[in-house]
Amino acid sequence: MTTSPARHLIASLLGIIALSLIATLVATTLGPASERILTVFFISLIAVVGMGLYSGNSGILSFGHLSFMGIGAYVSGLLTLPAQMKMATLPKLPDWLAGTETGFLTAVLIAVLVTSVVALVVGLALNRLEGSAATIATLGLLIITHGVIIGWRDVTRGSQSFFGVPRETTLWAAAIFCILALITARLYRDSVSGLRLRAGRENAIAASAVGVNIRKERLIAWVLSAAIMALSGALIGHFLGAFSPKKFYFADTFLLLAMLIVGGMSTVTGAITGAVTITLVTEVLRRFEGGFNLAGLEMPAVFGTTQIGIGLIILFAMFRKPEGLAGLKELEERFFPAHKLGAAAQGAGDTVKNVDPAPLEGKNLTMRFGGLVAVKDVSITVSSGEILGLIGPNGSGKTTLLNMLSGVLAPSEGTVLRGNTDLTNAQPYEVANHGIARTFQNIRLFDTLTVYQNVLIAALSTNKGERATQRCEVAIRAMGIGPHAGSDANTLSYGDQRRVEIARALACEPSLLFLDEPAAGMNREETDDLMATLQKLTRELGLGVLIVDHDLKLINQLCDRIIVLNEGAEIAQGDPAEIRKNPAVIEAYLGHS
Amino acid sequence: MDIFLQQTVNALALGGTYALLALGLAVVFSIMGLINFAHGELMTIAGYVLMYCGIAGLSFVIAVPLALLASVVAAVLMERIAFRPVRNGSGATMLVTSFAVAMILQVLFQNLISTRSQPVLLPAMLSDSVHIMGMVIGVNKLAAIIATVVMLVFLDWFMKHQKTGIAMRAAAEDFAVARLMGIRANTVIAGAFALSGLLAGVAAVLWVSQRASVDPLMGFMPVLKAFIAAILGGLGSLRGAVAGGFLLGFIEIYLSAFLPPEMQEFREPIGLGIVVLVLLFRPNGLIPSATLKAEKV
């Protein structure tokens, strides 16, 4: 299933196919030299979209992807190498492998499968690391793979050239596989998994809170991208006929990464732009490498002109366009309008399908950060159909308590229960799937995604994604942000961004909703508006709300019950009238008189 | 037992060099989130200064401070020219910028100096060895260990008692708040780069004094190892960087000493495999950075 308008996908698929075919036809008319350049270009482009599929969507730069290209090349080469050749060059090969000789396509397929399995194992380990640590770990992967290929002489001929691979990669084969790889990458970007992964890239905590298991999506993208790299490796192996481990090490990693980064790694458009730019520049600079004559001036041969050129282009791109030449949007997304809201769906308003009647109980919750006790032995029950206020001075532990209830923090002591289900150490995405949704004090939207996509991710990732489109649109309408559906979330005003946050939480179809300072930064009218919406939601849908805010007027008018925290401990609980008279509360807010 | 002690001395020497490099990376990373790929080129620059000083007939006692000065100046210039424009960019943007810088510098070394490895004149004393407790220890190894200890003590003092050092620690904790308290961003960042340049310079002197040669890619491999040491220790944590550097040194030296000969070819993959194993159990490193959990939700 895809999550973007069909016209985007159709436009891009047609574009990819047309461009590739035109380029191929032009090259065949120009002769063998251009055919060679274009074949290498296609193979590089496959690798670049492969790297982009993981790095672009997950936001984790990978230096290790050439490992998979290498594995693909060696595995497919071992399969297609003629048996006699194997006997001569690799006498110590195990018998079953020595006797095997398959066709090109079979070899490519097996190479892709084998590499995917390797990538799955590597990915499970890599998944434990985050951000920059993961990036460096991929560097480690590159060194490990290189070391294994060199050390495993009986199978790979070590650091010597692995030769005799039949040259089966024709221009047309490269073109067709390139089209396949581009389409795979394009479709993945707007698949459910791709959209979730991009949400995780934009804001990991928020993505998790709306039900996205980021690690799972990362693993999917990792394996898929490794498979594409293996394809590229198998093709380059069968194009060159001979290669050595050096081909899949730092030099080519940098070249391919340069293409990805200069073009922009979050789109397929970017991968193509980057590959074209760098290929053109390299082809031009290579001609100057041996020295040239400029208007009578003899220029000396400069070794490494191409590298300097690429280095300068990267610097220029980073200084001027850090997102790459193509930016963050696919070409077709710029030309065709994004999602518009369809006509109001039937039964608009039934956001919640079944209300889970079980209350959420936090028992004796304590949270320590080093020596600091942020929350001390607080017990809290949130039931559906009730609006519960949580107030207290700054630093009294309100948000920490909310974080423990929603799985963002694991409590140091105490338990969190929903009915019979223990949610104490549950991950946020699991909590979200138990009908609990939340918003954040500091707005956490998926900035570069549209409002529609922001909300859709939540609907897709909770309750098994049932009726996702309908839930998404109902939530957007309920919060009155329909006119902004197609805009990027970071272009909205502050108040509208808060509304998108609430819509996103509603799209999870929660039975309990946690709001962390929803009215912060809103003016009086906006706050009143919000209050009316919230009252309507609880009354009509039986939603339970836990609300943290400093606006006491809002809290007093809205809440059925209020809990007051001070210095991490509960100091009062009761209905608004009681709380207003409670001496401990007055003291906490106003001090001794 | 003797071999074991002997190898332990080697491991301390190598691990100390990794630790200094990893520290240099960590100082910069903890403040601005930049993984500096061009750190190795600072090492190479210091190496070339040593080489030219040797050719010019300068004494090693003068050559070493000059080499350190050169890498400090190069680090500060690098920040000013290449990294300031991307200071507020994402981690990936800065990392990519640094690799472009590294690539350009490598090609420049190859064109302006030589593509080949060049010999460096070292004082004869460095290749002597001394007998301690029945072990024969190379003076260069001993010097490496002593230099590492001196640098670590200096750094500890600097970070705890010097105004700039304290400012750097504050900036690593929360740069925005540190700036609100009146700490100048440019000073702190330039200071961090100067410090990382100094550490790279010391590491380069130690590295060159073991090998007596320098080539355009000299800094590449050791800094790659230092990256790995830095995540092994805990990215952004200074103590972690030291721990990771030493642990990686120990892993490498013991493997090369005690791995059976038929496995030696797989030394590197096995060593990194052990690192991965450690990380599987401690994904945030041996001594995780304190700021990891501090993100406000």
Short summary of the structure?
The complex is a heterodimer of chains A (593) and B (297). Chain A is of the alpha/beta class and 593 residues long.
User: What amount of the residues of chain A lies in strands?
Assistant: 5-15%
Overall mean pLDDT score of chain A?
Answer: 90
Largest sheet of chain A: 6 strands, mixed
The largest sheet of chain B, given as strand count, sense and whether it forms a barrel, is:
2 strands, antiparallel
When the domains of chain B are counted, the total is 1
Order of helices and strands of chain B: HHHHEEEHHHHEHHH
Q: By helix and strand content of chain A, what is the structural category?
A: alpha/beta
Q: Which sequence of strands runs across the widest sheet of chain B?
A: 1-4
Number of strands of chain B: 4
Report on the structure:
The complex is a heterodimer of chains A (593) and B (297). Chain A contains 25 helices and twelve strands. Chain A is an alpha/beta fold. Chain A has two domains: 6-248, no CATH class; 360-590, P-loop containing nucleotide triphosphate hydrolases (Rossmann fold, 3-Layer(aba) Sandwich), CATH 3.40.50. In chain A, helix 2 packs across helix 13 (250-263). Chain A starts with 5 loop residues before the first helix and ends with a helix. The mean pLDDT of chain A is 90. Chain B has 297 residues and is mainly alpha-helical. Chain B has one domain: Orthogonal Bundle (ABC transporter involved in vitamin B12 uptake, BtuC), CATH 1.10.3470. Chain B is built from eleven helices and four strands. Chain B has helices at residues 2-32, 39-56, 60-83, 91-112, 139-161, 163-173, 175-180, 185-211, 220-233, 238-258, 267-281; strands at residues 118-119, 129-132, 135-138, 213-214. In chain B, a hairpin with a 2-residue loop joins strand 2 (129-132) and strand 3. In chain B, helix 5 packs across helix 6 (163-173). The longest helix of chain B has 31 residues, at 2-32. Chain B is globular, with a radius of gyration of 19 Å. At the A-B interface, helix 7, helix 13 and helix 15 of A face helix 4, helix 9 and helix 11 of B. Chain A: InterPro entries: AAA+_ATPase (IPR003593), ABC_AA/LPS_Transport (IPR051120), ABC_transp_permease (IPR001851), ABC_transporter-like_ATP-bd (IPR003439), ABC_transporter-like_CS (IPR017871), BCA_ABC_TP_C (IPR032823), LivM-like (IPR043428), P-loop_NTPase (IPR027417). Chain A: The chain crosses the membrane at residues 6-30, 37-54, 60-81, 102-126, 132-150, 171-188, 219-242, 254-281, 301-319. Chain A: It is a multi-pass membrane protein. Chain A: This is Metal-dependent hydrolase. Chain A: GO terms for molecular function: ATP binding; ATP hydrolysis activity; L-isoleucine transmembrane transporter activity; L-phenylalanine transmembrane transporter activity; L-valine transmembrane transporter activity.
